Amino acid sequence: MTDLPIVARALTHGDAVAVRGPTRDHTHADLLARSAVLAARLCGSRPDLDGERVGILVHPDAGFVAALWGVWRAGGIAVPLSLHATADELGHVLADAGITRVVADADLAASRAEPLAACGAALVDPRPAAAHPTALPAVARDRPALMLYTSGTTARPKGVVTTHRCIAAQIESLVAAWRWTAADRIPLFLPLHHIHGLINVVSCALWAGASFTPLNRFDPAPVIEAVAADRFTLFMAVPTIYVRLLEALDALDPEARLRAAEGFGRLRLVVSGSAALPAGVFARFAAATGQWILERYGMTEIGMALSNPYDGQRRPGHVGLPLPGVEVRLWSEAHGGSPPPGEPGEIQVRGATVFSGYWSQPEATAASFVDGWFRTGDVAVIEEGSYRILGRSSVDIIKSGGYKLSALEIEAALLDHPAIAECAVVGLPDDTWGEMVAAAVVLRPGATLTLDALRGWGRDRLSPYKLPRRLMAVATLPRNAMGKVTKPAVRALFAAA
Ligand code: MCA
Ligand code: AMP
Question: CA 404, 401, 241, 349 torsion: positive or negative?
């Protein structure tokens, strides 16, 4: 008998629909059955995977949930892999996590045959097969369950490890705060190698006995049509998606626009997060649909921390107050403690929703905590009882379309280009993406480089969303007296151009 919280919840939801597919629906019981078969397949003759890291390279649908739960029920640590990663990026995760087996859909495995073979990973077929009774291990809640790779202030992404207990705490906090019920239906168009899609959408829905509808990717027209047809009660997305929705609504004829706007207006709750929602987008969406988007703040390492209220006023430009079970404080180096009211400080978080550590990086883990509080690196003020995020302490973290990108990782890749002698990557403010990746480069003598050529070259090395959208060749990079590139001055160069 297993002790996994999410599996125990699924047992109580039985024949309710969990995943609404284009050709068929899948119940919670189906997911349990499929995951038990996969767990047995993974265990083979072993009683317990004992924390083996197992990669998941599966399309975001019922098969993904079966794979995730299958790894969990076998006692493994699930490592959902990006479906956009290049061979090099995938290779980094596989090697860093020590992954030797990947549950993979055949088409995804075929298109990544090289990096999978390079690390010697064996493929496990996620497709359902005839069940054969096997005793699955009892997996304690304090065992590590999940590892998600996140970019930070290091050149390479780090693995963020969370336990079953931590994941349950993250889910329970959101289910309570946002009043999830078994009657909820939510679309899924966000990737499942990050917690916005994996925890906030999929895991909360399954925990509550609700359902999600996988849409594979975000395409405004079918999403708008489905909302107009009342197929959903809840909607969660990154700010870029609300910008895209507003553009698509504007382009509709008046009758279709009214129908769509009324559909959005009838949703029980519309949530934005992963990056700052511009106040103008909040206002335009409210004017177009009557929905006051609920903005919240979170991070891979801590789950969701702050949220505007479910009931009561949702303030544009603000992210509200701590979620249930989450302790949040502002911390100021200058004051050696909490800053005076109205003054900025770093957001620090404590509680059951906080991760266990970075995979095999004890020093980085230790450096990210102070007195048991996790240091987010995000700076905020509290105004009239609501947090407002001012920015990040690191200039090397860029948020583009909700993805967290490391300027250092992009710089390291660009320096391999034969025409580039030096480079500095920064995020520039952008109405659609929040921030846009921009590269200032010093070219080698006689070399030339266009943005298109750089993007084309970079496709084998970086995920498409990390590729620069602006390029500027400069004679020298601005540096301080210590010789370090001054990123604000680099940003100013682009602004001046
Ligand atoms: C796609 N492109 C991007 C991005 N996404 N460029 C910059 N930034 C991006 N985020 C590129 C594509 O590769 C393509 O380039 C071009 O833009 C147009 O692509 P398009 O098809 O229009 O874009 P899309 O595929 O529709 O993607 C847009 C998206 C996606 C749906 C907004 O970026 C997305 O799913 N973002 C959410 C990521 C997420 O879940 N973040 C949460 C992390 P080309 O034409 O050259 O190929 S978790 C987190 O942040 C914390 C915990 C939290 O608080 O939630
Ligand atoms: P990730 O590492 O991908 O989990 O991204 C976490 C980061 O996203 C946070 O540290 C913030 O910088 C940013 N973030 C998430 N939600 C918001 C929000 N509502 N407003 C501003 N920044 C946000």
Answer: positive
